[in-house]
Design brief:
Layout lengths: L2 E6 L2 E6 L9 H17 L2 E5 L3 E4 L4 H5 L3 H19 L5 E5 L1 E4 L1 H8 L2 E5 L5 E2 L11 H10 L5 H6 L6 H7 L4 E3 L4 H13 L4 H10 L1 H11 L1
Parallel strand pairs: 2-3, 3-5, 4-6, 5-7, 6-8, 7-9
Antiparallel strand pairs: 1-2
Helix pairs in contact: 1-3, 3-4, 3-10, 4-5, 5-10
Length: 221
């Protein structure tokens, strides 16, 4: 299993659950995009939630280690396309961060409009430097757009990982609640925001984020 969708009134709840770390691979990307397609047709707001203790550990490193450079580049590009889609999605997107959100996992958080995290001994952040990887252009753009500038060096260069409370200060999350409340709180916030969904909402989101959208778009085509 990868990502599934349930419609709760005006809110589409998309759950990532591969039974492990919610690694981002072609299967997960395809199921997330299919769920977003359905959400656009049947809902007015979206919640993206992980499995217990895991939001997403990022790109599937095992797959990447056994793939050609071209395949790795395509996977990263497709991850960037997903992030861009979320960042420019025409309705509110709330992330329910149920646990660890590392690398591509934290970039999904940065691409969502509202991020509510579960308190706990979890790690959130971009660890690319620590694993000898260069940050892709879409990740750099999102880090610059969403993080508190005071923490940008520590986050993007020094590969700092934060617990949920720290992540809210840095900018990966907006608020923190108890693990048993994170999904309910996210659905409640999405329901509130769903009243704003309209052509004006989509246009204003796009306009206010135009610079970052343009910075990402030409790198993932």
């Amino acid at each position: 299993m990868s990502a599934t969708i349930e419609i709760h009134g005006d809110v589409a709840v998309i759950t990532m659950d591969d039974g492990k770390a919610n690694a981002i691979n072609p299967t997960m990307l395809a199921s997330l995009n299919a769920a977003l397609d359905q959400a656009e047709q049947q809902a007015r707001a979206v919640v993206i939630v992980g499995r217990e203790h895991r939001f997403s550990a990022g790109f599937d490193l095992k797959l990447m280690q056994n793939s050609t450079p071209q395949a790795v580049n395509e996977l990263v590009k497709d991850g960037g396309k997903l992030a861009l889609r979320l960042y420019d999605f025409p309705m509110p997107v709330v992330a329910a961060c149920t646990g660890h959100g590392i690398a591509m996992g934290c970039f999904i958080l940065l691409a969502c409009d509202v991020r509510i995290g579960a308190a706990g001994p979890y790690k959130i952040g971009a660890n690319e430097t620590a694993i000898n990887m260069v940050l892709p252009a879409f990740a750099l753009a999102l880090l610059k757009a969403r993080l508190n500038p005071l923490f940008l060096t520590d986050s993007a260069i020094n590969a700092a990982l934060y617990d949920a409370e720290q992540a809210a200060v840095v900018g990966y999350l907006d608020s923190v609640t108890t693990p048993d409340n994170v999904l309910a709180a996210s659905i409640e916030r999405a329901q509130q925001l769903s009243a704003l969904t309209s052509e004006a909402y989509a246009k204003n989101k796009h306009l206010i984020r135009q610079h970052t959208i343009d910075a990402i778009a030409h790198t993932v085509i």
